[in-house]
Write a structure and sequence with these properties.
The chain is α+β, with helices and mostly antiparallel strands. Among the domains are: about 45 residues, no CATH class; about 190 residues. The strands form five sheets. An eight-stranded antiparallel sheet has the order 12-11-17-16-15-14-7-13. Strands 8-9-10 form a three-stranded antiparallel sheet. The chain has a two-stranded antiparallel ribbon with strand order 1-2. Helix 5 runs parallel beside helix 7. The structure holds zinc ion (3 copies). The site of one zinc ion has 7 residues, from helix 11.
């Protein structure tokens, strides 16, 4: 048997073969690896340089182009970030600059850089509230019909192209239906209505009925075939801050002093709305106060949760909540919120946070929801109407958590609903 030697590193008790010792200078392999790693880290720390990709660049369009270009990772380079976010830059683009960004996206599409182009077009639609007719033409040329939100406000000629494809393009049908839902003009409303009344032969190849795609774009048909919007176009965002102010129309995350009858945990008021504040006139609710509340733990684990509410701020657990068969008290792990959320003083675009992958803070009252998965508007358990989206809470903004809570209302039945989605 070969004699083993002690590792020369102070405090290490490993023994090694003479062959290893010859290779490493007397230390064991884990110590050797640690030594190399520290040497490398030291080298990087000594040779690292800070690079400002925005040095001497002043035009917002040029800054955005740099932001959208994928960066190569170089361990010796620390890229400085721009003091403003993409979102802020898009907010302030002039019509001319919007057109320049769109033209750049078209160029990228022609060069086959679809991901980059898509991100630019989405930012134009969601942040700059732009219409992107040339961008859409370029995407359709490449037979790209996704994401549907890009097709919002598309021209009738674009609509006709998509309408025509629906019948034969089995592979893209899913995306085409979503694009049509987002266009949602009168012609399309009629089309979805006629599909609802007489199912097209290709519908059997879908997972859901053609008309249910309209929920992706925040609307549905009523019994007469009219379009009903399921969200409010007015939107106020919330910002994470560390100080508390009382004088906002809506306060997020407050105690309700109620307890969940299932798990005995607290029922939290996700949104406490002062209906007398002029800012909330857009909700068109007569009363003083609306409190949208839920047991956030149970809503995250067991799906949609209902509360009886009124417009004076009362709330109580709804008997429509059915204890799940697989209910278990053991699963919960509570995290304390880190930040407070403040409602913005000024409204922002309805679709600002609608595309989840753009990764903007999503807490808001009003506006189009930020679906992480498929659109899910709950049905009112009392009258069976689809409930209207009111507000959502982005747990990443709250801190130590992820996922989004969505709140809905059936105004006539006085029921609120809370649901949750995460990746
Ligand atoms: Zn060692
Ligand atoms: Zn609970
Ligand atoms: Zn109802």
């Amino acid at each position: 048997m070969t004699e083993r030697l002690p590792c020369q590193t102070e405090g290490c008790v490993a023994t090694i073969l003479p062959a290893t010792a010859a290779k490493t200078g007397g230390i064991c392999m884990p110590c050797q690896q640690k030594k190399l790693r520290l040497e490398k880290e030291d080298y990087i720390a000594r040779n690292r340089r800070f690079v400002d990709p925005y040095k001497d660049v002043t035009e917002p369009v040029e800054i955005l182009k740099i932001m959208h270009t994928p960066k190569k990772h170089d361990p010796l380079e620390v890229l400085l970030s721009y003091p403003k976010s993409e979102q802020e830059l898009y907010h302030n683009l002039t019509p001319k600059e919007v057109a320049q960004m769109e033209a750049y996206a078209v160029q990228l599409i022609e060069e086959g850089e679809l991901d980059q182009a898509e991100e630019i077009l989405l930012s134009l639609v969601c942040f700059a509230q732009a219409t992107i007719h040339l961008g859409l033409d370029a995407l359709i040329q490449k037979e790209c019909f996704y994401p549907g939100i890009l097709f919002k406000d598309a021209l009738p000629s674009t609509r006709n192209k998509i309408m025509e494809r629906i019948h034969h393009d089995k592979e893209n049908r899913n995306h085409l239906l979503s694009a049509l839902a987002w266009i949602g003009d009168e012609e399309i409303v009629c089309q979805f209505d006629s599909w609802a009344k007489s199912t097209p032969h290709w519908a059997s190849e879908l997972y859901v009925s053609p008309e249910s795609y309209t929920h992706e774009a925040g609307w549905e048909l009523d019994d007469e075939g009219n379009k009903i919007t399921l969200f409010y176009s007015v939107r106020y965002a919330f910002k994470a801050e560390d100080q508390f102010t009382e004088n906002k129309a809506v306060l997020a995350l407050k105690d309700s002093n109620h307890t969940c009858p299932w798990c005995d945990g607290p029922i939290e008021v996700l949104f406490d709305c002062n209906l007398l504040d002029p800012v909330l006139q857009f909700l068109n609710l007569e009363g003083e106060r609306l409190r949208l509340a839920a047991c956030m733990r149970c809503a995250a684990y067991y799906g949609v949760q209902f509360m009886e509410i009124d417009y004076q701020g009362h709330l109580s657990w709804s008997s429509y909540n059915q204890l799940p068969k697989h209910f278990s008290r053991e699963i919960y792990e509570d995290t304390e919120p880190v930040h407070l959320l403040h409602m913005a003083d000024q409204p922002s675009g309805s679709y600002e946070a609608s595309y989840w992958a753009l990764e903007v803070p999503a807490t808001q009252i009003g506006g189009h929801p930020t679906w992480i998965q498929d659109a899910e508007y709950p049905s009112c358990p009392s009258c069976a109407q689809t409930m209207v989206f009111i507000a959502q809470l982005d747990m990443e903004q709250v801190g130590n958590s992820e996922g989004i809570y969505y709140t809905f209302l059936c105004r006539s039945c006085q029921l609120s609903a809370t649901s949750f989605q995460q990746t």
